[in-house]
Amino acid sequence: MDQGSIALEDLQHRLSSRSRRAWVWAVCDQRADASARLLNALLVIGPQPISWSERSWVYSACTFVAATVSAGRIASVFSDGRQQLKVGGLEMSFEPTRQVSCQRQPSSSRYKGVLQPYSCDFFTLTTTNREQASSPQGYLVGQGDTPSFPSFESAFSAFFFDDFTVTGTRSPALGEIVTCIADERARIRRIKVGPASIGVWLSGSSLRDAFLELNGVDYRSIVEVSGREHVVMPLPSGLPMDAWLWLKHGLEWLDYRPLMTWGGQLSPDIGFEQPRDAAAELEQLAAQGEGPQLEYKGKLPDTDHEKRGAFRTVVAFANGDGGKVLFGVDDDGVICGLSGEPDKERERLTNLVRDLVSPAPACKIDVQSIDGRTIIILDVTANRGTLHALTMHRNKPEYFVRRDATTFYARPDEIEAVLTERD
Predict the structure, then answer these.
(1) CB–CB of 369/343 below 8 Å?
(2) Which CATH number fits the domain that encloses residue 391?
(3) What are 305-328's pLDDT values in tens digits?
(4) What is the largest CA-CA distance in the chain?
(5) Same structural domain for residues 271 and 322?
(6) Which SS3 state, helix, strand or coil, does residue 160 take?
(7) pLDDT tens for residues 333-345?
(8) Residues 300, 340: contact at Cβ < 8 Å?
(9) How many distinct structural domains can be found in the chain?
């Protein structure tokens, strides 16, 4: 299942069938007494996470703790009624709801703040008192070598994700327990695309019965892995358009990679032997049509109406999974080009981003030319827990999100999701 929901009993069964330990981060709203209430927890079952260390940060209003717990012990407390989760000698109470949302992610991707080398299943359950949970207020001052922070949010980000940035830190989702279970059967480690073939490096214990499938617009190929950790697939006419590579077993995928900037994104473990054909990639982006992470604009905006239409989308990208805005491509995907001087148009776009989006998002601006037509690509980085606003009027910030290929005003629950979701 790529996404959906399961019953609490199903998650309990998944955990009870595993003999591995879990790497746990947790925070409760009391120091260390019997009434300590679990506020948030992240449990990773799989290889040891990067920068893992067992530790605790104790403050007057809350306690953070990171320690290992057996998967079987976790399974025993994922059941009906009030439960006690013991982590590093600290007991925290919670009462789970019966429904659990699930999301499967490929290897080398980041979800819920977790970057894992294997494909992972993420299970998110909430507690029955979620609505009553509130963040500790005021400064968190640590004794001795425990670090101090101006807010609970900045302490949470530092403890759970090793992000010590204080400015613009997000509010975590309270009353939420996320369990990440790594699928260590097989994974894609590296891909190198050449002029006539594609090399794929694999690892895992279930490669013998696995298949690699290359699926593109004008070429498709399936190769039996047969236990090999390096597979070479021919490309008779080069890499096909809109190509995806699937590592699969039976009716399920073990791992996958989009191979051509699908939705404006390309995995960093994909390499190219020959120089990238920027013009061909731009033409492919223009041909694929607008989507969740891609928008076309025929020109740089001049009027307030045009600025609003363009930068509400930039805000939505910054509040979500990122995306590209192609200036010089009309709504039908026709590359019409920009009329001004490229350097001046680039500078004008830079100033527009700075003036109209607050805080300014992390982004990259690239100027390209095809047959004498100038196109500027604004590549907006995915949300990092900071809420961005359109500021056409300084005293009236507006918040937007992207759904499919359309930009909408953000609902209160979507604003909360922006602040609590991590890339």
Answers:
(1) no
(2) 3.30.950.30
(3) 999 999 999 999 999 888 999 999
(4) 71
(5) no
(6) helix
(7) 899 999 888 889 9
(8) yes
(9) 3
